[in-house]
Amino acid sequence: MPQPDWDGFSFDGIGTRWEISTPRPLDGSLRARLLAVVERYDGDWSRFRPDSTVGAMARLPGRYRFSDEAAALGRLYRELYDITAGAMTPLIGGSLERLGYDSSYSLRPAGSPVPALRWEDAVDWDGDVLTTSVPLVLDIGAAGKGQLVDLLAAELRSHAEQDFLIDASGDLLHSGPDAVMVALEHPYDPSKAIGKVSLAGGALCASASNRRAWGDGLHHVLDGTTGRPVTTAVATWTMAESTMVADALATALFFAPGAVLEESFDFSWLTVFSDGSAAYSAGFEGTLFT
């Protein structure tokens, strides 16, 4: 993790805990700008806020304009939607709400799982404009946190901050000459690690079925074609230059083999399966404990 004498700027944003570590304290005006980026992003994309653009989309179909980052987000989601034959989709929000992961965090299923709406039937995502034909619950959680990390990094660099570590509750982006060592959390016991990785510039993201789990076998990684939780993989890690890409691919590994995803993306990866086995790319810069 960061050097012990680095300063940490901690805050809550988009429903999770953040820390930005830097060699010297960030001044008050830059901290305010960073928080403004978080608030603006949440105001666009949160499905847990009735006043967000996504909240309005859930109530009424129509034409909705988002900020500039929407174009890159839409392209990435559409590519992964196609690669996974619809299993990974930003239209999974309704399926999550059906199983209890709703805006009030009721965690009480309202009925049997339902598949996500088909992209072609429900939404036209053209750059920063989304046009919907029906009310729908958009959920960009598989890539959105990573994209917000990248937006905060861009804000830091625009103010000449080049050495930093952004920790968005386990999704990391490192910038600077000195690598940091990161433990890989055991998927069944958060107090233990199954390995470690040296992070020297770039992003390290993880996804695990135990992170947001409730009820009998229910968790947040759902297959869009069935609306049911995935049972094959239990934890994934990815390393890439972009945190948005690493974040999205950490979820995509629940639906597609890493070797297939490597045909379209430049990244390294590790997947741990429910039977205790693991698979990883030749370029994954980590060590698994035996």
CATH class: Alpha Beta
Task: Identify the quaternary structure here.
Answer: single chain
Q: Count the domains.
A: 1
The ordered H/E elements are EEHHEHHHEEHEEEEEEEEHHEEE
- List the uncertain runs: none
**How far apart, in Å, are the first and last alpha carbons?**
22 Å
* Bulk shape: globular
- Structural class of the secondary structure composition? alpha+beta
Helix content: 25-40%
**How does the major sheet shape up?**
8 strands, antiparallel
The CATH topology is what? T-fold
Query: What is the assigned CATH homologous superfamily?
Result: ApbE-like domains
Continuous helix count: 8
**CATH architecture title:** Roll
- Cα-based radius of gyration, to the nearest Å: 19 Å
What can you tell me about this protein's structure?
By secondary structure, the protein is an alpha+beta fold. The chain has one domain (7-281): Roll (T-fold). Helices cover 28% and strands 27% of the residues. The chain contains eight helices and 16 strands. It has helices at 28-45, 53-59, 70-83, 93-98, 119-122, 141-158, 243-252, 258-261, and strands at 7-13, 16-22, 63-65, 123-126, 129-132, 164-168, 171-175, 180-185, 193-199, 202-208, 213-214, 218-219, 233-240, 268-273, 278-280, 286-288. The protein has an eight-stranded antiparallel β-sheet, with helices on one face. Strands 3-5-4 form a three-stranded antiparallel β-sheet. A three-stranded antiparallel β-sheet has the order 8-9-16, with no helix packed on it. Helix 6 packs antiparallel against helix 7. The mean pLDDT is 92.
